């Protein structure tokens, strides 16, 4: 039997829950948990338990989000939405996304045990999809709440040809009821997410937490390069229309242009080759190009420069190139008043916290269409994310949880 002296700390409780959530993963390195997968279904059970312990009533919504509401939220009072995503990239880490689900629940449970009653509604959402790993469409859960999820996104298909709508239906959601999920702006206080930084700034400052000022703009392109297959041993090198050689030149040129432009980053993250045979000249290559910048003009100018280079390189090798934009979200600013409340909470918890920009996209990109957004970053080791070695410390988990408790108290004066 635990006593007050040997009961686990808030940080230890949070780390144990994150370890538990990480067990719901496909076999292999790190954590792989895709939207509407069996692993997604299984992880909802412990998350639902954490919600009930925090005084929230969990339910699966029509889009595949697990939503926990306190009695005031259920009664229709003005509500603060907290949360993050449960899904991961392939072979990702255990903290990206899940930290922002588990941490506010630990904070709310601690306040409940202290008999603190918040004078406003609270929802904690485990969004079904943010990463877009299974489908090209992303931010499905947060766009559903914001009322911006469109039919085109629901029609996107995974590698097995299953559409988003079909996956949601099989998961127990109701694609046809998704429009009814849209929250009314006048009923929402704001949206706040806790997330690992995914960068090295907090480590360099020796700070556990940071307050985010804005989220980067992101776009994704699907590039298809078509050449002509042929026997690798009998076709002369001169005149070959090798789609892979052309695509390789494009990847290198994209990297060169990105390296030469400030405040502009990108990656070719996925590449598929046909027929993908050891002795056949590749006839088709499809690859993804993701571009990010906090400045819309920088991203637009850089995109046109890169895509023009792709077309020029294709023409020089007698190849055809088709380019389709599959996703775009402009940079969004966090609300100044939420930044100030988060800074007040950090100060109240004795945590130094400077303002900082997020180079990653988050559910706030979609939630910004609904309400004011705020974000708290937590230091991660070496700034590493989307990797099995992604890590935070129990001490930082404790410190960030106490900041969230201070924030929830401070929000009472803003209702």
From TrEMBL:
Residues that coordinate or bind Zn(2+) 2: 96, 131, 386
Domain of life: Bacteria
Residue sites binding allantoate per the record: 220, 279, 292
Cofactor: Zn(2+); Mn(2+)
Peptidase M20 dimerisation domain mapped to chain residues: 217-314
Matches recorded under CDD domains: M20_bAS
GO molecular function: hydrolase activity, acting on carbon-nitrogen (but not peptide) bonds, in linear amidines; metal ion binding
Keyword Plastid: no
Keyword entries, A-Z: Hydrolase, Manganese, Metal-binding, Zinc
Record's cofactor remark: Binds 2 Zn(2+) ions per subunit.
NCBIfam families: hydantase, PRK09290.2-5
Protein family per UniProt: Belongs to the peptidase M20 family.
Protein name per UniProt: Allantoate deiminase
Organism: Halomonas shengliensis
